[in-house]
Amino acid sequence: MLAEDLRALPPRETPWFEMDAKRVQAFADATEDWQFIHLDPERAAQTPFGGCIAHGFLTLSMLSAMSYHVTEGLAGVASSVNYGFDRIRFVSPVMVGSRIRGVFTVASVDEFDTHLDVHWDVLIEIEGADRPALAANWITRLYLA
C-alpha cells in the first residue's frame, strides 16, 4: 500500500531554511572548501555575484534535512537512505543570508520485496527569486517495516 500512497502524494513543500554565514562557514570547515566567494564579503562583492554565495554542495546537502519534513509520518517505513541522483543542476546561486526550501514531487516508485526506491523531482527555491537554486532527480531507498 505504501507504494500507491507515495505515487498519489501531492507535491510537498518544506519549511524555509536560513543559509546564513554561520552555516556556510561550518560547511566550509567540514569540507575544507574555504574559497573566498563563500566567506569573504569584500572580495565576493567584486565578483559577478555581488556578494558571498553558499556552496552548491551545501545547498544540495540541505535535501537531507528537507526530506524529513517530506517523509514524516509515512507508515510502513523502517528506515530511509540516500541511493543517489539521476540528475543535478545548480540553476541559480544562493546568496548568503537567503532562505531556501524544497519542493518534492514523487516522479516514480520502484517496488522490491524489502524496499522501495522513490524517485523525487526536487526543486530548491530561493525566497523571493524567480528561478530555483537547484533542480534534481533524487532517489531515496525506503526500507519497509
Main attributes of the structure:
single chain, 145 residues, Thiol Ester Dehydrase, Chain A, 5 helices, elongated
Kindly describe this structure.
This protein is of the alpha+beta class and 145 residues long. The protein has one domain (2-144): Hotdog Thioesterase (Thiol Ester Dehydrase, Chain A, Roll). Helix content is 28%, strand content 39%. It has helices at residues 2-7, 21-31, 36-39, 41-44, 56-71, and strands spanning 12-13, 17-19, 77-90, 98-111, 115-126, 134-144. Strands 1, 2, 3, 4, 5 and 6 form a six-stranded antiparallel beta sheet that branches. The two termini are 12 Å apart.
Rg calculated over all Cα atoms:
17 Å
CATH topology: Thiol Ester Dehydrase, Chain A
Q: State the end-to-end CA separation.
A: 12 Å
Content of β-strand: 35-45%
CATH homologous superfamily designation = Hotdog Thioesterase
Sequence of secondary-structure elements: HEEHHHHEEEE
List the helices and strands and how they pair.
Layout: H1 2-7, E1 12-13, E2 17-19, H2 21-31, H3 36-39, H4 41-44, H5 56-71, E3 77-90, E4 98-111, E5 115-126, E6 134-144
Antiparallel strand pairs: 1-4, 2-4, 3-6, 4-5, 5-6
